[in-house]
Design a protein that fits this description.
The complex is a heterodimer.
Chain A lengths: L1 H8 L2 H7 L2 H28 L20 H8 L3 H32 L5 H11 L4 H14 L6 H5 L6 H12 L3 H9 L4 H12 L1 H17 L2 H6 L8 H6 L2 E2 L2 E2 L1 H33 L4
Antiparallel strand pairs in A: 1-2
Helix pairs in contact in A: 3-15, 4-15, 5-9, 5-12, 6-9, 9-12, 10-11, 12-15
Chain B lengths: L1 H23 L10 E7 L3 H17 L3 E7 L2 H13 L6 E5 L3 H6 L7 H6 L9 H5 L2 E2 L2 E2 L2 E13 H6 L11 H11 L7 E4 L6 H13 L17 H15 L16 E7 L1 H9 L4 E4 L11 E10 L4 H14 L2 H11 L6 H4 L2 H10 L4 H6 L3 E2 L7 H16 L5 H16 L1
Parallel strand pairs in B: 1-2, 1-3, 7-8, 10-11
Antiparallel strand pairs in B: 3-10, 4-5, 6-8, 6-9, 6-10
Classes of the chains: A mainly alpha, B alpha/beta.
Chain lengths: ~290, ~425
């Protein structure tokens, strides 16, 4: 009798019951979602590895040819080493500038009391509503009159302050207990000292978030670098990539190879800051 | 605290240093130095290499002038020229798409060339008149053609031969094109006979214009004040497209079938000769675009025009000297052989050296060379791109059967006229 029961329990019905259906379903949904997200990148990689002769053939999703020469060809098509240097300097300047200035301004808006503070903050927020295209030509004319065309100054300085960054960090700082400030003040810390010793160490995730946003914005920015640079030596990576789309046809394989290369720094920054993200959350002790 | 200020100080230096560096970089111009001209253009690949080589040679032969050839991407050039017009840094001279010329001329940023032309010995009659029309705005000439191209028939000889047709005897009339395309089409395998451009945009408009001109019509009235396509010729051209679709010679699809080997024939530009020579996975040839028996040979053209933007008289003169050189018959011959552009001058098209070169290197360019003289220019009005968009949107409705051909042309004419007003 028991042998029969045992056999029954190992039957197909029992096996089906033991399968974690809900988990399987969730993973299936997640997997298909991930696939949809990955397809454009996979497509980009596949196309970047195609030989030129196959670009007119019916498309396929997974790389079956590996024309690595596309990468060196794309690199040689323009002075990309110089473009990367320009992009790195510009992005570095913007990220550092935005993090420092936003942090200082956000500290003032979150902690200091001065007349017109809230109105000023609202005005700052209001600037986020103005599309960049509206101020493009006036901004360009100012930069031109200052003689900044074709300089890192033009690429960096006008974008070192961001209303979004100030807003983001102000909200973050308001979440840090005021008692910490007050304790430091009793111990004789100055305003700047409190900002540096109390606020900044506690706002790792906030600063990291802003840093990532600023990086993505600066690295991918196209219009402003286009407008303020005439000298080919001052062009950035994104401007370099646009050159593969010519009047008489687009060099898709080279464009995609160049795009893959230009995407890697973003990926790297994300992977690195993701780790730092988690660390800073754990260290600050303010989680939850 | 000390460390904090040190950090801030370093950052300040990092930020300020570029400012100081850039102001230090300004050099005073010396009277002894050659005239430095900046020349913007969007020629890339082989075209870009050729213009760079020509500019280098010009600089070597003219020690008193130094032209800096600056490549600006095709999508980027017009916005950058618009900024230059708005009052920023402008190049001394530039070469740009011919369809932008009326817009740029109207902006007032271009230097009229009539005075320079009159004072020089340039043989202006040698240029094809349609190419000069593009540059004429308010009876002043604002640029000279430097490169051009036109549209003719491409034939996939693999598909044509498979359908039992003779690739060596391509169609020459609309009636023959209809038969040839219908016989070659193979709907079971998704192969169309004659590919048409049926999406909204300039692609549709400039293809349709060829059929319109072939049927004896015109796009705008002679004074460019109103639509002229709303005519018997316009209706005939549109009806011909609908007949091709009805006969099964074309099935509505995204543009690009010919390149994928899915179309027996297409009308496309001379620049595709070089591209498909490298990438097409099938055998192909070219022929003159068929036209109606009672019609006339015609094609559309594109290309680049060169113009002066400098405000300084000495620079204008130096720029004009370069323009004269680069549009001269000798330099043009070399330019066309290197790049595969079509001749802008009759003397180049009929030059025996040029014809021999074509026959020996790429005989498939010959129909384009022979037809350049019949190329019309798109109307030189500054609203052209909006005009082309509304026009093509209406034609698309006729193609999808939402309007009758006459209704579509009437609607397009009304829209175009309101834009021109």
């Amino acid at each position: 009798m028991s042998a029969v029961t045992a056999r029954l329990e190992h039957g197909p019905g029992a096996l089906l019951r033991r399968v974690p259906w809900s988990k399987l379903l969730i993973h299936l949904v997640l997997l298909s979602g991930a696939f949809v997200m990955v397809v454009p990148f996979l497509w980009m990689v596949t196309l970047s590895l195609k030989p030129l002769e196959l670009t007119n053939q019916p498309p396929y999703l997974f790389p079956s040819t590996f024309e690595f020469a596309n990468y060196s060809r794309a690199w040689d098509a323009a002075p990309f080493a110089r473009y990367y240097l320009n992009s790195i300097v510009m992005t570095g300047g913007i990220v550092v500038g935005q993090v420092i200035f936003s942090s200082l301004a956000a500290y003032a808006f979150a902690r200091l009391h001065f007349p017109g503070r809230d109105v000023l903050f609202m005005l700052f927020l209001g600037t986020m509503m103005v599309p960049f295209h509206v101020i493009l030509i006036p901004s360009y004319l100012i930069v031109d009159r200052l003689g900044w065309i074709d300089s890192y100054t033009a690429l960096i300085v006008p974008r070192m302050v961001s209303a979004f960054g100030i807003f983001l960090l102000r909200q973050y700082y308001q979440g840090i207990p005021r008692e910490l400030d007050e304790a430091a003040m009793i111990d004789g810390a100055s305003r700047l000292g409190i900002w540096w010793r109390i606020i900044v160490p506690l706002s790792g995730p906030g600063l990291a978030t802003l840093g990532i946003f600023a990086f993505m914005f600066a690295w991918n920015d196209f219009l402003w670098p286009l407008v303020v640079t005439n000298d080919p030596d001052m062009r950035t990576v994104q401007l370099g990539l646009a050159m593969f789309q010519g009047r008489y046809g687009t060099q898709w394989t080279l464009l995609m190879a160049g795009t893959v290369t230009a995407t890697l720094p973003t990926l790297l920054v994300f992977l690195l800051s993701q780790r730092w993200f988690i660390q800073s959350v754990a260290q600050s002790g303010l989680k939850g | 605290m000390k460390r904090l200020f040190l950090v801030l100080a370093i950052i300040t230096v990092l930020v300020v240093a570029p400012v100081l560096h850039s102001t230090g970089a300004i050099r005073p111009a010396s009277a002894q130095e050659p005239v430095k001209l900046t020349f913007w253009n969007y020629w890339d690949g082989k075209n870009g290499e050729t213009i760079q080589a020509l500019v280098d040679r010009y600089n070597a032969e003219h020690p008193d002038v130094e032209i800096e050839n600056v490549f600006v991407g095709w999508n980027e050039l017009l916005p950058k020229l618009q900024l230059a017009v708005a009052g920023g840094d402008r190049p001394d001279l530039a070469a740009a798409d011919m369809v932008w010329m009326p817009y740029l001329a109207k902006s007032g940023a271009l230097v009229p060339l009539d005075g320079f032309i009159a004072a020089s010995e340039i043989a202006i009659d040698d240029f094809y008149p349609a190419l000069l029309n593009v540059n004429t705005y308010d009876d002043q000439m604002y640029g000279l053609p430097v490169s051009t191209n036109n549209l003719e028939l491409f034939i996939n000889t693999d598909l044509v031969a498979a359908a039992g047709l003779d690739p060596a005897a391509p169609p020459t009339t609309w009636a023959e094109l209809m038969d040839y395309a219908t016989q070659c089409a193979n709907p079971d395998e998704g192969i169309v006979g004659m590919e048409l451009y049926t999406q909204t945009g300039e692609g549709l408009t400039w293809q349709y214009q060829v059929y319109l001109w072939q049927a004896g019509g015109d796009f705008l009235s002679e004074d460019l004040s109103q639509a002229a396509f709303n005519s018997d010729a316009g209706l005939r051209a549109l009806q011909y497209w609908l007949d091709l679709i009805d006969a099964g010679a074309y099935a509505i699809s995204d543009w690009g079938l010919f390149g994928q080997g899915q179309a027996c024939m297409v009308m496309d530009g001379s620049w595709m000769v070089g591209i498909w020579a490298d990438t097409a996975p099938f055998e192909w040839t070219t022929a003159k675009m068929p036209y109606p028996e009672d019609g006339e040979p015609a094609t559309n053209m594109g290309g680049e025009h060169i113009f002066i933007m400098s405000n300084d008289e000495a620079r204008q003169q130096a720029a004009w000297d370069f323009i004269q050189w680069v549009t001269s018959a000798e330099v043009q011959l070399e330019w066309d052989m290197e790049t595969g552009f079509m001749p802008i001058r009759d003397s180049v098209a009929t030059n025996p050296d040029f014809q021999t070169w074509i026959e020996e290197n790429e005989p498939r360019l010959m129909p384009f060379v022979e037809m350049q003289q019949y190329a019309h220019n798109r109307p030189p009005v500054e609203q052209y791109s909006e005009l082309s968009d509304v026009f093509s949107a209406m034609i698309e409705r006729a193609i999808y059967g939402q309007m009758s051909p006459q209704e579509a042309l009437d609607a397009a004419a009304a829209a175009v006229n309101s834009l021109l007003r």
